[in-house]
Amino acid sequence: MMGGSSLPILVTVALLSCASPVISVKRPVGIMTATCKDGREAFCDCKADIERSNPILCKNILRQCAESFCNPICLRMGWEILIDVDCGRTPGWRGCRAFQEQMHKSQRAISAQFQAHVCSQDLDCCRNETRLVNWVEDHVYADLYPNSHLPLQACAEGAASAKVDVCAMCNAAVTVDILADERRCIPSHMKTKDIMPGGVHERCLFLSDLIANRRDALVEELQGAICSCAGCCEGGCYYKEHDQDEWLSSILDHIEASFGLQ
């Protein structure tokens, strides 16, 4: 429960060494309103005696722990977006095979857009907007720089055709899913009982549970946005990118909005 009552996380702090606090955490199964803020409060701590003797070390421990909830945990480790294109659902769309191939090559760009949105706006895991949009930009341009993976060429060509409703075709062909599996958090040679309490792998399990608890709502949101992100429907994506000038403008608009400057 959030609000007046506390999150059901049992925290026991012990000291492995002078540099690493150990925290045992009961994972928040069923908690729909928990965010990375709760994770930072549960996991990111430093013993009082260390803080007195080495405050700089403690500050670095807390900073690294807090930042880990963004990257690598929320942006890379904790969950995965799955995108499928079935051209059998759109027999009248001659451009579907090209769209399918382009979507396969660009799915990481779309995934990065959605993950950045969720990790910052929904879960409060990422708080450095400049670093976040740089991460998105790296995936949107990736191996095609200075060209972008988005929008898809098949969407642009379909939109120019009077014979095809490319937005409707995309919505019919594309389905999405979200995978939040603890196996993404734990190295293949380890079991859950082997991970270090309070370490990055246990923090990842915390995040994975947050995603799993929201899975249905996140799938619904992404399903409604993916064809806009691909460029087949109007509306654009979470971080707009069509040419370099518009991309830079989008970054500035997003940062200004985050700081309440608009």
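The above is record 1. Record 2 follows with the same two-line structure.
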Amino acid sequence: HRPREALEHGVQEEGARGVEIAASKRARTAASVEAPDSEASIALCASVADAAAALADTDCIAALVRRPLGEDTQSGFAEYIESRPQWPNIDELHPLEATCDRVAVIDFSDVASDDTDPLEVARGYGRNLPPRGTAGKEASAKAAIAQVFKVLPESLRMVAAGDAISLLLALRAHTGRQQYILRMELVRGDTCQKWHCDQNICRSLVTYAGPGTITAREGGVQRAPNGCVDAVRDDAAVHISAGDFLIMKGGT
């Protein structure tokens, strides 16, 4: 479930799809933080790298890193949301549109496995960036990341961009995927109000302002024959707070 007035960032694998930054969301994640040996588990990890590595376990459907935001950072993001920021091109949205976002595709396809600066070699594509195929003019992944977060005040931009870089590098190292979608999302209304099975191969979420993301242990999920979520017991819900990293396997 996504609440009103929130800011999040995420990464989703493309094809799998990429990395996403966003606000709160009820999404499919079945397992137990307390019982990692259960048939399907949410792994509680110490770092983003450990969380990405945990996905290789077939019984792990999600990985969680508890990382409370510092007081100054938390208040900074809250004040930013309270200021009701007007992002470029926001006037293109329908008045009832619940979210607006800034997106870039990050492509590591031409990066060698031993490259010391993969984000400088990787390419980035999106609004206000050169399109694919413009030889010699394509933007680096670093430039694309900077473009996504440029609307934030500098101190907040450094936090969100640093998180995105950590997620991208960890997922590339441990999933073998080469393309990701990086998304920063400003949630202005209620979206994803129902429990559902996520339709990305992999999605990571970090909330910066707002109640956070809600996911669930599989043992408390009631599914229809086609796998869709019918209901979730209240005691199966796991609350992902602002600042925490959540990486989920999806439904495809």
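The chain is about 20% helix and 30% strand.
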